[in-house]
Amino acid sequence: MIYLNYAALCPALPEAEEEVERTLAEFKRYLYSEAGIEWYLKKVSDCRQKVGALLHVNDSSSIAFATNASTAHYLLLSSLKWEPGDTVLTTTHENPSITKQLRALERDGVHVRPVRPTSIHTFLQTLEERFDEPGVKAIVLSHVSHVDGRVFPVHEVASMARARRCLVIIDGAQAVGHIPVDLNALDFDAYFFAGHKWCEGPLGTGAMVMRESFFAHPRYRGIEAEQPGGSPAGSFEIGTHNIGLIAGLAKACEQRCHQGIDTEPQRTFRETAKELLGGRRNCRFLEWQGPHAPGIFTFKGPDSLDHGAFVKRLASESRIVVKPFVDYPEEDAPAIRLSWSSTMATGDFQKGVMTIARRIES
Fold it and tell me: What Rg, from alpha-carbon coordinates, does the chain have?
């Protein structure tokens, strides 16, 4: 199989998988004895520091672990007291699970206003106009679009929002481990990500980072499971977590931190994909005049191509796995997304893309 869907799920690093097993075996000696609880709390604290090092987070107590990005986002939204007439800004490129959660707020009279990111200039101009409308309390947007990898101007967006005391909540699922992320240099209230994507951590992992400004915001009301003492972020870790998975995520982040994030091989792959699929094959690329994350490339095939059926045939006949966008997002669908890791074999990548190109022509 040639796997070109790393933006959905990356295979876990062997080191991360080994850390999961090692940690669970060690914890089994203690369980929830007094010594076990002490061991568990220290282990979680150590894991927070390793995740924080990758993200350049100075205060690791601001990190809370979650089972995935969607759960982290749900917990963040649930901790805010929304009122009828409030407006949340977002984009048309958000993950469907995030969009679904935002749309659920509309039952309580909250307005959700998505902005289509056609170009950096137009996107920022439209957002500035929206921010000046009455009732805008927050913006939820991705750091990197899961649709086509465009990197949103989060620094500029955050600056606009902060000037108007709006919450800034950023989905880093397609950014962390994919591109360098320095949260110390970014002004935000909450930032969350999944561990099973570009970090190459185990399934069922994720984390969120919350600044003091999040807890101090007038809309913050806390969560029912909040416990006295400890950090406010830690109260979001509801119930008993799998310490093995947390340790596996921390190990994956530690590996990323030590090795650095080399984007050059992925950028080379991206240019190769554009060359092989461009020109005579009548493919159109989804991109803007601005930065793109190197491991994602999305294109629209000829108008006559049934994108959904084509992707199914690729999987069944050629054993090539890609991501189809059949009816979402509405403005850019149908389309096909390719995504790859920096360690993918060049021969496999080229074979996969060339096969896709030939099959489109046939």
Answer: 21
Q: Report pLDDT digits (tens) over 249-299.
A: 999 999 999 998 888 989 999 999 999 998 667 889 999 989 999 999 999
Q: Within a domain: residue 5?
A: no
Same domain, 90 and 165: yes
Residues 43 and 187 in one domain: yes
Domain boundary among 258, 287, 315: 258
Residue 161 and residue 53 in one domain: yes
Same domain for 137 and 228, yes or no, is yes
pLDDT tens track for 102-157: 999 999 999 999 999 999 999 999 999 999 999 999 999 999 999 999 999 999 99
Number of domains present in the structure of the chain? 2
From 258, 282, 316, the end of a domain falls on 258
| CATH number assigned to the domain comprising residue 285 | 3.90.1150.10
3-state SS string over the chain? CEECECCCCCCCCHHHHHHHHHHHHHHCCCCCCHHHHHHHHHHHHHHHHHHHHHHCCCCHHHEEEECCHHHHHHHHHHCECCCCCCEEEEECCCCHHHHHHHHHHHHHCCEEEEECCCCHHHHHHHHHHHHCCCCEEEEEEECECCCCCEECCHHHHHHHHHHCCCEEEEECCCCECCECCCHHHCCCCEEEEECCCCCCCCCCCEEEEECHHHHHCCCECCCCCCCCCCCCHHHHCCCCCCHHHHHHHHHHHHHHHHHCCCCHHHHHHHHHHHHHHCHHHCCEECCCCCCECCCEEEEECCCCCCHHHHHHHHHHHHCEECEEECCCCCCCCCEEEEECCCCCCHHHHHHHHHHHHHHHHC
Residues 273, 236 share a domain: no
The pTM (predicted TM-score) of the whole model is 0.95
Enclosing domain of residue 314: 262-361
